[in-house]
């Protein structure tokens, strides 16, 4: 379909800040005189497009299908997603595809692979959380090779991201468990209700609400029995996916055997990834062992030996982290009291009261030991006990929300316009879907998966701290990274987890990790991005001025910390170290205080209503704002088309370019500090956040319910 886009010229200028913190696209557009509200309205009235994705087999979707050499029942279907994501260099190969795994129900796990900018043996797997959230959230909002920008009405562009992690590693993004994002069981036609992300099968007519409230599409079946309901079950499917990918593309195996590479395979995961990371790593190690014992064939499977595990704002252990919700809500380094000190101490007491969160967690641990040690999710008694523990602990998290703050950012209201979410619209364009080869529409979060995991009490199940302790003792770098404005898996809880890991690891870790002081994270010649405690294979990094999805808020800092973890260098400076003896030095606590940045302009994304739309916008969205009808442009709800940022692009581009001189980007390399900058210019983190807004105007965040990303 061709669209009558009334735009005559579009220019994209790429600039960076002086210290190179962000890539900013300025879309300067000269509007033709006929570009008017009327024209827009009539365009939307007349629009009609194929709503469902044509039923087509892999060959018709132009996918190459191969059998996995390791297991002939596993197939890998892939293609080159031509033109969907602009990388820093044209030479970087990309593949999108699905690994199809046999079982009681169809499992097709989606991957998007991007080659590093410069040749490297390093391969990094990336997982977002939820449970039920797509890993393309990280791809398009933070660490992926490109970001989506508006080009015009229903027209998008992608631009290379300066601090994409492809700068240091080959990247493999996986949507999991089954049915999340582009992963699917059986493509099924339905109608999604954006008000609450529920999907009706078969499709229904929208008779009550404005057109934009619902959309037809092709989705996973939504059958909760067709996905994993514990992290352990999810882990095995991902192991198959990694096997399938690496046997199909052996050139990306870190070395012949995988085991001896200095870089190897890294796993980085965010949020609920605090559970995925440790359990997936443990599962990979168990599978490796089966190759040694002969349970798995040596010649057709490969060792997936992790060299690093990174966890970003992870919810790793409910028992250790839960008391820090009330503590952080009342006492944080931004001086923001979301609840009073009295309330906080009440909830800390509640946590450890008889029959409270802590008690129930211990009951869950006992139940698992006897009833479900492997995490199969099939013992009803264990599920009930652990489910109750989870709910009790979540209730200690909830008082914070009375302050109308975002779960992911102390600086933002509950309806948070950051990070930009334009990609949700982009990935549902027919042309993009064809290039990727997908038989299903894209959704950010999957309710069915979320509720399946809730039913087994997965989050309350113990064991991650000993798992992480075992991993560091096996020589795997474990890097915990926490943005200090995040509430939902806040850094105080993360810091407590880091100390507990060291204690449980024993040996030198038990004494030298906690005794190691916090050193500055030197990001470039002028900016200190956080504070890090590092000893041996374990590190804990507090990132300044970052919410939950750290790479979106502080891309350069996140990248440098990522690169230093996988390379085994000093996270403070990037210098080579003897990792077995090195420790950071500095103060005992990370005490830096700062101011919260100003609020961003509210923005309502119709594909992320729960997270991004404030009450006024929700009323407009539901057609309950009296005479005001509103208009949706490129997935964003506006009162009138004149509010669309591109409609006023001439003004904003002038302001922006005078404020930020264009400089030439360097798109490769990692930074090694030779000196320590005196002190931060106060605005570094703050200006980044507001400048990011210019990339795509404004945007929204995720659904109401989960730990999400
Ligand atoms: C498959 O490739 C052919 C030839 O390039 C093209 O004509 C066709 O549109 C493609 N089909 C899909 C579904 O991408
Ligand atoms: C593949 O599936 C067939 C039929 O279900 C089964 O007999 C066979 O053992 C499977 N092969 C592998 C390698 O799992
Ligand atoms: C991908 O795009 C390039 C350049 O635009 C073109 O030469 C190539 O044929 C395309 N490949 C496919 C498979 O469509
Ligand atoms: C979600 O939307 C569906 C369809 O409109 C509706 O039936 C259902 O009641 C809604 N659920 C909630 C929780 O609002
Ligand atoms: C969705 O599909 C159903 C059934 O084909 C149809 O009645 C309905 O009008 C469609 N919805 C939209 C928004 O087009
Ligand atoms: C969901 O899947 C299970 C197992 O495949 C099947 O028995 C059940 O009928 C399905 N439920 C629905 C509503 O289709
Ligand atoms: C690779 O590592 C394994 C296990 O650590 C070791 O047994 C083997 O000798 C190493 N191979 C090479 C070529 O270094
Ligand atoms: C793997 O090893 C087995 C047993 O030694 C052998 O039968 C089989 O042919 C080998 N497979 C491949 C692909 O080399
Ligand atoms: C979780 O999944 C397992 C395996 O599919 C199943 O046996 C079990 O009943 C499920 N648990 C719940 C609570 O649905
Ligand atoms: C699904 O994708 C098609 C394009 O293939 C699009 O027209 C439709 O609006 C999408 N539906 C949803 C719910 O995103
Ligand atoms: C550092 O923080 C811990 C935990 O909050 C506290 O017990 C300790 O007194 C602090 N140490 C210093 C030197 O401030
Ligand atoms: C606790 C600890 O191990 N501290 C050491 C950290 O490293 C410095 C410099 O190498 C040593 O002097 C400390 O003793």
Radius of gyration: 24 Å
The count of DSSP E runs of length 2 or more, i.e. the number of strands, is: 24
Q: Largest sheet, described in full?
A: 12 strands, mixed
Anisotropy-based shape: globular
- How many individual helices? 21
Query: Strands of the biggest beta sheet: in what spatial order?
Result: 3-4-5-6-10-7-14-15-18-21-20-19
Mean pLDDT: 87
Distance between the termini: 34 Å
Query: Which stretches are low in confidence, meaning pLDDT under 50 for 5 or more residues running?
Result: 1-48, 256-262, 650-663, 682-709
Report the sheet-strand fraction. Answer: 15-25%
Question: Roughly what percent helix?
Answer: 25-40%
Structural class: alpha+beta
- Report the bound ligands by name, code or SMILES: 2-acetamido-2-deoxy-beta-D-glucopyranose
